[in-house]
Design a protein that fits this description.
The two termini are 31 Å apart. The chain has helices spanning 41-59, 87-95, 99-116, 132-144, 159-166, 177-183, 227-237, 251-266, 297-302, 314-322, 334-356, 367-384, 389-408, 418-435, 441-445, 449-469, 473-485, and strands spanning 6-9, 14-17, 25-30, 63-68, 148-151, 154-157, 200-205, 221-223, 241-247, 271-277, 280-282, 285-286, 330-332, 488-493, 496-501. The strands form 5 sheets. Strands 4-3-9-10 form a 4-stranded parallel β-sheet, with helices on both faces. Strands 5-6-7-8 form a 4-stranded antiparallel β-sheet. Strands 12-11-13 form a 3-stranded mixed β-sheet. The protein is an alpha/beta fold. β5 and β6 (154-157) form a beta hairpin. It has 3 domains: 6-277, Rossmann fold, CATH 3.40.50.620; 282-434, Orthogonal Bundle (Isoleucyl-tRNA Synthetase, Domain 1); 446-501, no CATH class.
């Protein structure tokens, strides 16, 4: 933990030392779900990634205010700016429900899935519909500052004036305003109301059939999708805060337009650091319902999918996600999940073995002691290098053979101090549970599970040892082979036999 924390800033496209605006306090805003359907696996990966970031910031001593919103109005079908139907209103119409019934149903499902993945709740989880007055106020401020205009009851943000004054529209996503204008969808409804094709709506006049609408100085309508995050991040974290996060797919237009809105209302960008998680692929391709290349979290947990050969537990899936850096694409395949399952079990087994070890005393800081401390230091350095979970996990796995050697007697306790063993125990425990947010699922099923297995294995190895002492090699080999068939590896050493689960 000696290395200064560095993170990759999407705005500057480079790693930067993390220096919060207020000493030891971090304000972090992450764009949450639009609750019109069940949360998909790609979203889960994003929220798992930022959960680890949240956990690590707290672990190294920061007081974090984590805000993650719920979008329950304004997000139009196709992610268009104007002219589309609200996603929640559409689902309400299709399911013959009230919009807020749709919101409650899928928000409950989202919270349940986050709990299943052991994602910590944010400190504040504001909803767009709970902040309509604040959104109307920000629209008025942007109008007063000259960065928006009213046409037929709708209010549009003037991107060209903004770019002229600040020269930053497109900076986050790396897109030029000329290209955005050329690429604009000129056939969209209300496109002719805009001064420039790249302008976007911050207040939309509702037609009489629209289910969610509010009175405003300009029309009965509803806020644009991008406005809510500018308003709620500012309300709960201030006009300038530390970290704004979300998926890569939100860079443009959502986050780009947030930057513009905050300049228009406050005179500057909202966040010092922008962080984006990359997408989840499946079998090398983007997930898509249209061609059947998709899988839901429940299907992963039950095995009810042609893409996988068996069910995988939530913690195995979380572990799988953390084996890749949050900024890299992650390819979900059955082979990769099987490998992750083996790795997860190996890590948990090593931790159970480690926590059962007791130092007899009189240890020295010899070479093994130094190797263990170096690997521990490197694991923390990896996490401080833009939250590099795959490298940190690799350090933990380098420590696993040393743990097993301590258990089996191949590594002598005399070669490391009591302090180093205590540090190793704490590091494993803290990384697994507090930083990576993993849970020992065997403990969850039965708190006595490992103690029972440990007792049975000690009994079995005692019987086998007696057989070996009596030169009953047939019984000895039979026990060893039967255990091997159960993926339990028995190793014979000069100080007796030890076992591990492969």
């Amino acid at each position: 933990m000696k290395k200064q924390l560095q993170l990759y800033n999407s705005l500057t496209r480079k790693k930067e030392p993390f220096e919060p605006i207020h000493d030891r306090f971090v304000g972090m805003y992450v764009c949450g779900p639009t609750v019109y359907s069940d949360v998909h696996l790609g979203n889960c990966r994003t929220f798992v990634s930022f959960d680890v970031i949240y956990r690590y910031l707290q672990y190294v001593g920061y007081k974090v205010r984590y805000v993650r919103n719920i979008t329950d109005v304004g997000h139009l079908v196709g992610d268009v700016d104007t002219g589309g139907e609200d996603k929640i209103s559409e689902k309400a119409r299709l399911e013959q429900l009230e919009p807020m019934e749709v919101v409650q149903k899928y928000m409950n499902g989202f919270h349940k899935m986050m709990d299943i993945f052991n994602v910590l709740p944010p400190n504040i989880e504001p909803r767009a519909t709970g902040h309509i007055p604040e959104q109307i106020k920000m629209v008025q401020t942007i109008l007063d500052n000259g960065y928006a205009y009213v046409v037929n009851g709708s209010v549009y943000f003037d991107t060209v004036k903004f770019a002229k004054d600040y020269g930053v529209y497109g900076q986050l996503s790396g897109r030029k305003i000329e290209d955005l204008i050329a690429e604009s969808r000129d056939n969209l409804k209300n496109q002719d109301e805009k001064r420039h094709p790249s302008d976007f709506a911050i207040w939309i006049k509702a037609d009489p059939t629209h289910l969610m609408r509010w009175d405003s100085p300009w029309s009965v309508g509803f806020p644009g999708w991008h406005l809510e995050c500018s308003v709620m991040s500012t309300k709960y974290l201030g006009e300038k805060f530390d970290i704004h996060g979300g998926g890569n797919d939100l860079k443009f237009p959502h986050h780009e337009n947030e930057v513009a809105q905050n300049h228009g209302a406050c005179g500057h960008a909202p966040a010092k650091y922008w962080m984006h998680g990359n997408m989840l692929l499946m079998n090398g391709r983007k997930m898509a319902k249209s061609d059947g290349n998709t899988i839901t979290p429940p299907q992963l947990f039950t095995g009810d999918s042609p893409h996988i050969s068996k069910a995988y537990s939530p913690m195995v899936v979380r572990f799988f996600m953390l084996q890749s850096h949050y900024r890299n694409t992650l390819d979900l395949t059955d082979d990769a999940l099987q490998a992750a399952e083996k790795g997860f079990k190996r890590l948990m087994e090593a931790n159970r073995v480690l926590q059962s070890l007791e130092h007899p005393g009189n240890g020295q800081a010899n070479a093994p002691d130094k190797e263990i401390n170096t690997l521990i230091d490197q694991a923390f350095e990896d996490m401080s290098d833009d939250f590099n979970t795959p490298r940190a996990l690799a350090r933990l796995f380098e420590l696993v053979p040393k743990i097993n050697s301590l258990k089996g007697g191949q590594l002598n306790f005399a070669d490391l101090t009591e302090e180093t063993l205590a540090r190793l125990k704490k590091t494993f425990r803290d990384f697994i549970y507090d930083i990576l947010g993993l849970k020992d699922e065997s403990e969850g099923a039965d708190s006595r599970h490992y103690a029972i297995i440990e007792g049975l294995m000690n009994l079995i190895l005692d019987i086998r040892q007696q057989a070996r002492a009596n030169k009953d090699w047939g019984t000895s080999d039979k026990i060893r082979d039967a255990l091997k068939a159960l993926n339990i590896q028995v190793k014979d050493g000069k100080d007796g036999s030890s076992w591990t689960i492969e």
